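[step 3/7] fold_predict: job queued, chain A
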Amino acid sequence: MKKVLFFILLSLNFGQDSSAQTIIDTSAIINELTLIHDRDQKTRASGDSSQFIFFIDSCNLVQIETLISKYGWPGKSFVGAKGNNTVWLVIQHADLATQERYLPMMEKSVADNESRSCDLALLQDRILMRQGKKQFYGSQVTFNKITGDQEFWPIEDEANVNSRRTKVGLEPIEEYAKYFDIEYKPRKE
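[step 4/7] structure written:
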């Protein structure tokens, strides 16, 4: 009888709201995000596991989507700047449908100063490119089908691209182009 009463009291939580007793181990979440970040970047930087990139990206995405479903978009105040950047990075490397699904959450996070506007700009450009539209910030590069050289995906209102880039914390497009060995020349519209 005492055991039954004990379990009844436990199930009632002594009249307290069970959500008030939930403790989130943010250090474990941050450690998980660090591992995801390292795995994502190692694949791209060293090339030693590049044949498994889609598998690695999909595994990372499962972990990130689980995290988002539990806590919402993990902002800087929850998982730190690197953890928040990792969430964006995995979404940036996901398929178009996934990017479109999480774009509104990231937009809200940026509006709440919980994510970086420069990361949002890159995600927006990647979505526009995948939709076959002109990009807005000039962050996406593709290969020229004839020469094989890298070039910028077409940019909307290219004359004002640096103004938009500055507003979101991106460097001038001329500097950014150097990372890809592109000599940037604005297209004539």
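[step 5/7] annotate
Confidence is low (pLDDT under 50) at residues 1-18.
The chain has eight helices and two strands.
exit 0
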